[in-house]
């Protein structure tokens, strides 16, 4: 069976016109995989936007305002796109992609973020600080034919368990924008529009996380 790849729609909020023009040129050979639109078009049709790339370094008040407007109007994933290293960024809650990436690497990274495979938000650790692994949440098997990714299934299970978006973000170590993106993708796949419908779907399909053993 041939897999049909979804064309992603992205926009970029960057005060450097050269950076914007350069990104447009880089992505031209990959037009079937990533469609780049300007921020005004994105604001006019926020429901079409999958990813909002932005440069946080020396951001003007205009760009900051545009970014806020996009984040409030769209449920797209916000992604830092910068030359600066991760440990110098003012915002370390969004996924981070470096402008030093090749076009091919950038396209794959964007597809991973939107698909749910994800690029983790950058976190700064000193050399002496151990990085603690995140314990996975045990979730049921995805219902046959649902096409849910493991992360989408995990989040639907937590929704079914009554957690809010903020609580899910804290549980999984993800930004609220990432949680909204996964929820939006999951809702499309299970054909629901509201949280109450998602909970009902989860209950009907047995999405109840395994309970931890209780010490006695």
UniProtKB/TrEMBL annotation:
Name any one GO molecular function: DNA binding
Q: Which organism is it from?
A: freshwater metagenome
GO BP: any one term: regulation of DNA-templated transcription
Q: What CDD domains would the database entry show?
A: LuxR_C_like (cd06170)
What protein is this chain from? Unannotated protein
Matching SUPFAM superfamilies: C-terminal effector domain of the bipartite response regulators (SSF46894)
One Pfam family assigned to this protein is: GerE
Q: Where is the HTH luxR-type domain?
A: 141-206
Report keywords, A-Z: DNA-binding, Transcription, Transcription regulation
Q: Key word Transcription present in the record?
A: yes
Q: Gene3D superfamilies given for it?
A: Winged helix-like DNA-binding domain superfamily/Winged helix DNA-binding domain (1.10.10.10)
Q: Which InterPro entries match?
A: Sig_transdc_resp-reg_C-effctor, Tscrpt_reg_LuxR_C, WH-like_DNA-bd_sf
């Amino acid at each position: 069976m041939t897999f049909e790849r979804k064309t992603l729609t992205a926009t970029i909020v960057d005060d450097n016109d050269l950076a914007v023009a350069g990104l447009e040129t880089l992505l031209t050979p990959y037009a079937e995989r990533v469609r780049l639109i300007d921020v005004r078009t994105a604001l006019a049709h926020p429901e079409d936007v999958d990813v909002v790339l932005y440069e946080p370094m020396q951001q003007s008040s205009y760009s900051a305002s545009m970014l806020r407007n996009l984040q409030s109007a769209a449920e797209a994933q916000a992604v830092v796109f910068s030359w600066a290293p991760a440990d110098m960024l003012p915002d370390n809650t969004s996924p981070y992609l470096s402008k030093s990436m090749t076009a091919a690497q950038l396209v794959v990274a964007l597809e991973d973020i939107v698909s749910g495979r994800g690029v983790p938000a950058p976190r700064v650790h000193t050399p002496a600080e151990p990085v603690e692994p995140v314990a996975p949440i045990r979730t049921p098997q995805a219902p046959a034919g649902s096409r849910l990714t493991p992360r989408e299934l995990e989040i639907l299970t937590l929704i079914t368990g009554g957690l809010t978006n903020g609580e899910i973000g804290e549980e999984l170590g993800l930004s609220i924008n990432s949680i909204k993106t996964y929820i939006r993708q999951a809702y499309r796949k299970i054909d629901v529009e509201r949280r109450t419908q998602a909970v009902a779907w989860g209950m009907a399909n047995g999405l109840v996380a395994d309970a931890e053993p209780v010490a006695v």
